[in-house]
UniProtKB/TrEMBL annotation, chain A:
GO CC annotations on file: outer membrane-bounded periplasmic space
GO molecular function: electron transfer activity; molybdenum ion binding; molybdopterin cofactor binding; oxidoreductase activity
Official protein name in the record: Trimethylamine-N-oxide reductase (Cytochrome c)
UniProt-listed PANTHER family: TRIMETHYLAMINE-N-OXIDE REDUCTASE, TRIMETHYLAMINE-N-OXIDE REDUCTASE 2
SUPFAM superfamilies linked: ADC-like (SSF50692), Formate dehydrogenase/DMSO reductase, domains 1-3 (SSF53706)
Single GO BP term: anaerobic respiration
Domain (Molybdopterin oxidoreductase) ranges: 221-726
Keywords: Metal-binding, Molybdenum, Oxidoreductase
Coiled coil spans: none
Domain annotation Pyrogallol hydroxytransferase large subunit-like N-terminal: ranges: 161-215
TrEMBL record, chain B:
Gene3D superfamilies from the UniProt entry: 3.30.70.20, Immunoglobulins
Main location class: secreted
Any GO molecular function: metal ion binding
GO cellular component: extracellular region
Species assigned in the record: Parasporobacterium paucivorans DSM 15970
Keyword tags: 4Fe-4S, Disulfide bond, Electron transport, Glycoprotein, Iron, Iron-sulfur, Metal-binding, Repeat, Secreted, Signal, Transport
The protein's name in its UniProt record: Fe-S-cluster-containing dehydrogenase component
Subcellular location, record wording: Secreted
Length: 1000, 281
């Protein structure tokens, strides 16, 4: 461009800038006239603001006085706040009504845009400008759908499906699943065996979604900042009284003052690593407010020790199966694409093995899969369920139920392989062409290496399942094209959370590989995952990081970085604590465990050690919510941890007063997602479960309206972090000055939504249904490329290019590129690791029927799968309507006890009957429950769901009998296998007796 | 005129309790006068899927039977309390909010136990079929709208038309039907019938195998009632037998083996027969 053109542009920019700034005071005054609330906002400050170019060639002064704004051209000294633009070009782009996000971020990063002055005044002015852009929403409340009866209908998302939220007078009237209207996209059709199947035009809701209104208005809501009565930050802290003392209400000012002073004190006193933060695995729905977005950015800005997460739902697959077939980015999970259609068209049998999607909804899948599983009944495809408990999926679908003793599933699977090897009823061509190391495994299965053929008769003594039954299953499976469902979605499952559950998961992939994984009708899935939706439409999931700016610690580096301009954030502190060893880290001051890396298969062989070199041990714990004590193994450890003096300060940011919140020194009241802005898609987590939304029958993307004002003095997590950040001088660093509404809008702009629907329309209607692609453009079936030996053609970016040892995108993520029955990665790591050999074996559990001494004292094998009616702790307790479900809790003598299930013979032997209050105990603890006597369990196996929301000890926390059903007080914290950081809660021996003690 | 009818399909109910939760969501904390006052938060349920278990390991079965006001055409509550109970022309039965106050005995008037006593408001209450919503243009009550498979569904049509549908789909009242309930059920056998199940094996050398080729029949007084082929586990199940229907003969045949005959008495519960092993001729 010539110099003349440059000059022309400069003049143009200056004119636009001048015009914009000239109009600014008039705009502000006009808005104040129209909206009294905005007028109040203007009245808050009497200040002057100088807006100018850096070279002072142009400037305008804004004067705010008593709610009026006036302005003058020129450069003035001693303005309260200065907004300085590098040059007119930057200024025009930033100030222009349609802001260019990338330019804005660039300008802020490069210092081309600066805001000088006292934080409070600068923040106020910056927020005021943004409010101008959002005035129709913030002040005109121009969003949602007006109903004829005066109610307003909004939309939000939950862990169990999206909801319509009807509101009147700032009160939620009702929540419902979404019925689509005539302008929404028509659904897909699957044609199978001469029949056509289409899902209904609506969303579904899980029970914990239907219970949300009662959770919002729970009497257990924390409505004000609270301080433990005997906690004095400047005097006695009385650590030992955590979990016992009561709380008193304090002001936000006092709470923020204590929290920010403590952050600075511990960090300046102890240095890096002293502040520790964890949250539960699941948050209230929304991609910007999620812990992987707002909290991630906040703690990155602050510098904090993080928890290294164990892949708790995938354990067996992540630490086991991945060595045979890769999939590290999915924690050992498999591809889902188009498997629903393939299963319906081509499979002749479905085996649900440790798979109960009717209880778990996969994850976030509401009751979408239920609709498809009913089609399987219509198609008459036979199903088999392998689970120690007659689960809800078996109850709904029918079919044969097989109940092995917990933790022995690998033995059952080996016997199936043995029958196939003996009878030659497996895909020999596939095994020869597409796999490696089969002979090694065959030697073991046939008993050549140890003299013990793994026959159906052999497995019977381990599993308790008749050899006849296993042989019959193996023979039928050998004859029929079979889908295998592991866990509610895929690659999950209770059996993978047992001692050596790695071997079960390994056996699962080995079995399906023997039958030709990826060939028509032979694949993983139970109709829960892999619907024919449009995977090309770009809308990320919550684990893709929102506005975290964390390109390595979330999925942002893969899925958002090139779409959503935002300043990056990095946590400079590298210290990690393995989540399963948090109490040990705090109480013993040191711990270590393997770290589940997702970029490669062998990353998991590395250990993390705490404390990290040069880092302090943890002195302050900033906890988000109260779930660990209900969801983590041997969870009384947490109560003991909180009551020790190595934690100098504990702050909990919680919606409800429950679980660990009751162990904090300061509790900050967080609001629910019904009380804040956000944006998201139903069942789209992104991250470890790429394209999770393929559990849905429709891609439903929505804005999450702020349906009501936050209750009491509660605030959104975002606003709380912003308030703390302000105290630490981090206000711009944390949010770029944006509100959560601004972020939701910025997020919208980064997706494919603007091509289909305007922000204005989305704000009104609330949701958009992404049309499915025409039939001839559907995604290829998962692993079909692998079966055919062609290049990977399924729509995902994993594994990384460097994870292909041969040519890129040809073959699996194994050194050979083939399915490896003998896993080379394990062989290279430690070929003699008896707890995880290069081939899949059966290893008797340390806490099962083979643990003779333990078993003689505690002869009942307890499994505690993911709870059905609550999403982990989100639903249970809180006096929510969920507690009235008779299958969730039982009302006995005025208390709603957690349910414990047992076979009639076991009950009779102990003199117990239905509805008895019982004490379930072992060496780790003692928990009260109400008894359900049922034929859903064989003798010797007992069942109680995990994740009671509140911890109610009948005495000293960490030691006393627990009344509320915290089953995880009883489960072992030992790792699934020694070189893994994985839990094995379903290897748990207990005994049961009638409770005769006091209940208070 | 077109009236409201409710259909409950037991085979489609997955036991999610959304109906009960949606009902609470609509009625706890919301007053829909003049239709009804607020529902009591705890203890009171206007609709509730009750679990029913039958059979034993491994032939266990679970079903859920939603219980609710049957909106009877010959409502016993209306007969006893004509001043409190209104039968609307569209079929919906409502209690008068004012007149139901203090009338605990209303609850006893319902043979289905569908009228509950709200201890907090000291009043009798029940399902209104969300009449306040239906009158406002909704096409389904809350329980139906939240039901994932529409195990609960609602039909708005003439009674004569519904009778045809009931005939075609074999819909039945949950009890004898003398009160002419407007709630009809499908696949009630899971709730009120029993089955006889068992497994068959044979010895192949010293290996016990499932008798997948066996044929099994069920006879009563010498008359063959049902016959089926064993499944691939060598197992069979004769379902939908009336409770206490007598002593049956189960005959199992497999080519090349001696027939097996056993008597089995069907009482109140499902019968699981011990494993039967074919022996060679």
């Amino acid at each position: 461009m010539g110099r003349k053109a440059d000059k022309g542009l400069e003049i143009f920019d200056k004119t636009v800038l001048g015009g914009t700034l000239f109009a600014l005071d008039k705009t502000l005054n006009a808005l104040a006239l129209a909206f009294p609330e905005f007028k109040m906002e203007l009245r808050k400050k009497n200040i002057t603001v100088q807006m100018k170019l850096r070279d002072e060639s142009f400037g305008r002064l804004l004067k705010f006085k008593d709610g009026f704004v006036t302005s003058n051209n020129g450069i003035f000294k001693d303005a309260d706040v200065e907004m300085v633009f590098e040059d007119e070009n930057v200024a025009r782009k930033v100030v222009a009504l349609i802001r260019d996000q990338a330019e804005f971020v660039n300008a802020a990063k490069s210092g081309s845009l600066a805001l000088n002055g006292p934080d409070e005044e600068a923040m106020w002015f910056s927020a005021l400008l943004l409010k101008v852009f959002a005035f129709d929403v913030l002040y005109a409340k121009n969003y949602g759908t007006k109903m004829p009866n005066g109610e307003k209908r909004y939309v939000t998302g939950t862990n169990g499906g999206p909801l319509f939220v009807y509101v009147k007078d700032d009160k939620i009237v009702r929540v419902t699943p979404i019925d689509f209207d005539e302008e929404d996209a028509e659904p897909w059709t699957i044609t199978a065996r001469g029949k056509k199947f289409s899902p209904p035009k609506r969303t579904t809701a899980a029970p914990y979604a239907m219970g949300w209104k009662s959770m919002v208005y729970s009497p257990d809501r924390v409505l004000y900042p609270m301080k433990r009565v005997d906690f004095d930050p400047d005097g006695e802290r009385n650590y030992e009284n955590r979990g016992v003392s009561g709380y008193e209400r304090i002001s936000w000012d006092e709470a923020l003052d204590i929290v920010s002073r403590e952050i600075i004190r511990v960090r300046q006193t102890y240095g890096a690593g002293a502040v520790f933060h964890t949250s539960g695995s699941h948050h209230t729905w929304g991609n910007c407010g999620y812990y992987l977005s707002a909290a991630k950015r906040f703690f990155n800005c602050l510098g904090a020790t993080n928890a290294a997460l164990n892949p708790d739902s995938w354990e067996g697959f992540a630490w086991g199966a991945t060595h045979h077939y890769g999939g590290s980015a999915r924690n050992g999970g498999c591809e889902p694409y188009s498997t629903v259609e393939d299963c319906m068209q081509n499979s002749e049998m479905i085996v649900f093995w440790s798979s109960d999607p009717e209880s778990t909804a996969g994850v976030y899948g509401a009751q979408e899969g239920t609709i498809r599983r009913e089609w399987i009944k219509k198609l008459g495809i036979p199903v088999v369920h392998i689970d120690p408990y007659f689960n809800s999926t078996a109850a709904f679908m029918g079919g044969r139920w097989i109940a092995p003793y917990p933790g022995t599933d690998a033995a059952l699977a080996l016997a199936i392989a043995n029958v196939w090897m003996n009878q030659g009823t497996y895909d020999k061509e596939y095994v020869a062409d597409r796999t490696k190391g089969f002979e090694k495994w065959e030697e073991y299965v046939m008993g050549k290496t140890d003299g013990v053929p793994k026959t159906p008769e052999w497995q019977e003594e381990h599993t308790g399942v008749a050899a006849r039954t296993v042989r019959a299953l193996a023979e039928e499976w050998g004859r029929k094209k079979t889908y295998l469902a592991c866990g509610g979605i895929t690659s999950f499952g209770c059996a993978g959370r047992t001692a050596f559950g790695t071997e079960w998961a390994r056996a699962m992939v080995c079995l399906i590989a023997m039958q030709g994984l990826g060939k028509p009708g032979v694949n993983f899935g139970g109709l829960q995952y892999g619907t024919p939706l449009d995977t090309r439409f770009f809308f990320p999931g919550y684990a893709d990081g929102g506005f975290s700016g964390d390109y390595m610690g979330t999925g942002a580096g893969v899925n958002i970085y090139n779409r959503m301009p935002q300043s990056p954030s990095v946590n400079s502190e590298t210290q990690l604590i393995p989540r399963l060893r948090i109490p040990e880290a705090i109480m013993d001051g040191k711990t270590e465990a393997n770290h589940m890396g997702v970029y490669s298969v062998q990353a998991q062989f590395a250990k993390i050690k705490y404390p990290a070199p040069g880092h302090s041990t943890v002195k302050m714990y900033y906890k988000y919510g109260g779930s660990h004590i209900g969801t983590q193994p041997d969870s009384k450890r947490f109560a003991r941890m909180y009551r020790c003096d190595s934690l100098e300060f504990v702050v909990n940011q919680s919606i409800w007063m429950e679980g660990e919140a009751k162990f904090a020194d300061i509790i900050l009241p967080a609001c629910t997602n019904f009380e804040r802005w956000d944006i998201a898609e139903s069942a789209n987590s992104g991250g470890y479960i790429d394209k999770t939304y393929l559990q849905n029958n429709h891609r439903v993307v929505f804005v999450q309206h702020k349906c009501i004002e936050p209750l009491g003095e509660s605030k959104s997590d975002f606003d709380i972090f912003q308030a703390v950040a302000n105290k630490l001088g981090l206000w711009q660093v944390f949010s770029e000055g944006n509100s959560e509404y601004d972020w939701a809008k910025r997020y919208f702009e980064c997706t494919d939504l603007p091509k289909k629907i305007s922000w204005h329309k989305l704000l009104k209607k609330g949701y958009y249904v992404v049309p499915p692609l025409p039939e001839n453009r559907r995604d290829p079936v998962a692993f079909n490329w692998f079966a055919k030996g062609i290049k990977k053609d399924t729509p995902e970016l994993s594994p990384l290019p460097s994870e292909h040892y041969g040519r890129y995108n040809e073959g699996l993520q194994t050194p050979s590129g083939k399915f490896e029955f003998e896993a080379q990665t394990l062989k290279m790591f430690d070929p003699n690791d008896e707890e995880r050999l290069p081939i899949c074996t059966y290893i008797p559990s340390w806490e099962g029927r083979d643990a003779k001494e333990l078993y003689s004292r505690f002869p009942l094998q307890l499994i505690s799968p993911h709870v059905k009616y609550s999403f982990h702790t989100m639903g249970d307790g809180k006096d929510s309507n969920i507690n009235d479900i008779e299958e969730h809790r039982k009302l006995v003598d005025g208390f709603r006890y957690w349910i414990f299930r047992m076979n009639p013979e076991d009950a009779q032997k102990r003199g117990l009957k239905e509805n008895d209050v019982i004490e379930v105990y072992n060496d780790r603890g003692s928990v009260l429950c109400a008894l359900e006597v049922t034929q859903r369990l064989p003798k010797g196996i007992v069942h109680s769901f995990e994740a009671c929301a509140d911890y109610k000890p009948l005495g000293e926390p960490g030691y006393a009998v627990e009344k509320n059903g915290c089953i995880n007080n009883l489960t072992p914290s030992r790792f699934i296998t020694k070189n893994a950081h994985g839990l094995a809660v379903n290897s748990c021996l207990v005994e049961v007796r009638k409770w005769e003690g006091e209940n208070k | 005129m077109e009236k409201w009818h409710i259909v409950v399909d037991i085979e489609k109910c997955v036991g999610c309790f959304n109906c009960m939760l949606a009902c609470k969501d609509e009625h706890v904390g919301n007053k829909w006068l003049p239709y009804t006052d607020e529902q009591q938060k705890h203890e009171n349920k206007w609709i509730n899927p009750e679990k029913h278990e039958r059979g034993s390991v491994p032939f266990t079965e679970i079903c859920f039977v939603p219980h609710m006001c049957q909106h009877c055409d010959e409502a016993p509550c209306e007969k006893k309390f004509p001043d409190v109970v209104t039968k609307r022309p569209d079929g919906i039965v409502l209690l008068d909010v004012k007149k139901a106050k203090g009338k605990k005995e209303l609850a006893d008037a319902c043979p289905y136990g569908a009228i509950v006593w709200n201890e907090e408001l000291k009043t009798a209450q029940k399902c209104t079929l969300c009449a306040h919503l239906l009158d406002d243009g909704w096409t389904e009550p809350r329980c139906v709208q939240s039901c994932p498979l529409r195990a609960l569904s609602i039909v708005h049509c003439e009674d004569t038309e519904f009778e045809k549908l009931a005939d075609k789909q074999n819909l039945k009242p949950i009890t004898n039907g003398s009160n002419q309930p407007r709630v009809l059920y499908k696949n009630l056998y899971k709730f009120n019938k029993v089955f006889v199940a068992g497994a068959l094996a044979f010895l192949d050398g010293d290996i016990e195998k499932a008798a997948v080729d066996a044929r099994i029949s069920l006879s009563l007084n010498g008359k063959k009632l049902l016959e089926q082929k064993a499944d691939f586990f060598g197992e069979f199940k004769f379902d939908k037998l009336p409770k206490n229907s007598g002593t049956f003969t189960v005959e199992c045949l497999m080519e090349g083996y001696n027939p097996i005959r056993q008597e089995v008495t069907v009482g109140n519960e499902c019968v699981k027969m011990e494993l039967m092993t074919f022996e060679g001729r």
